[in-house]
Amino acid sequence: MTVLYEDNHLIVVNKSSSEIVQGDKTGDKPLVETVKEYIKEKYHKPGNVFLGVVHRLDRPVSGAVVFARTGKALARLNDMFRTKDVHKTYWAIVANKPAAPEGELVNWLVRNEQQNKSYAYDKEVPQSKKAILSYRIIGQSDRYFLLEINLQTGRHHQIRCQLAKIGCPIKGDLKYGAPRSNPDGSISLHARRIRFTHPVSKADINITAPLPNDRLWQAFKTSEP
Fold it and tell me: What's the sign of the alpha-carbon dihedral 23, 160, 106, 151?
């Protein structure tokens, strides 16, 4: 676990692709517990440590995750996520080049709980939610393209589903049509930057999460525009 930012009200960490943010049926230790232990040890906190989960990343996704250290920060951050005052930028590696070098994708997504998968439609259908993202190609290698993605909505598996819909599944994402998995079980999607106004001090917080330490990601390290 790498801490990217911390103060009395919040802490931002760089999640690895194998970690879960909150506990699930696997019983694996979640990131929230690891961060609580870090705070307890660093600040010699007696008793239980308060740590609020503000948002989540899918298990195979890496990158910046924000936690609240106080109830006040949690309530305000929850409001900011709901009103879309938190700006998240993702990087994704795909094998297929999108038809346009940049663009906006608008779909209606339907979540299938049993399959833990979302399906994208061009028009509104029953139980669907509108999903909007913008992307642009910011790098390429011999076999892959690096996309920078900005979300306007926050739907279940939104980036994974919408990129698959245009024929550009994320590298390693078997669930959404990638031909093979990544050796470490990750998918090549990284929450690269997160920007928001501090919920208490009102300072501008702008955090960049270092890329995963594998050869392909590191080859794209210089692609930051």
Answer: positive
Please report, for residues 154, 207, 209, 213, 224, the alpha-carbon distance to residue 164 in angstroms, rounded to integers and kept in the order given. Answer: 17, 28, 24, 25, 24
Amino acid at site 225: P
Residue with tokens 């994320």: 170
Chain centre distance of CA 65: 8
Q: What is the rounded CA–CA span in Å between residue 3 and residue 215?
A: 22
Spatial distance between the Cα atoms of 181 and 144, rounded to a whole number of angstroms: 15
Which 8-state DSSP code applies to residue 170?
B
CA Rg value for the chain: 18
The pairing of beta strand 145-151 with beta strand 129-140: antiparallel
Task: Answer yes or no: are the C-beta atoms of 94 and 147 closer than 8 Å.
Answer: yes
pLDDT digits (tens, 9 = 90+) for 127-175: 999 999 999 999 999 999 999 999 999 999 999 999 999 999 999 999 9
3-state SS of 26-86 is CCCCCHHHHHHHHHHHHCCCCCCCCCEECCCCCCCCEEEEEEECCHHHHHHHHHHHHCCCC
Per-residue pLDDT reduced to its tens digit, 51-79:
999 999 999 999 999 999 999 999 999 99
Distances (CA, A) of 15 to 4, 44, 48, 63, 65: 10, 24, 22, 5, 7
* Adjacent-strand bridge partners of 67: 11, 53
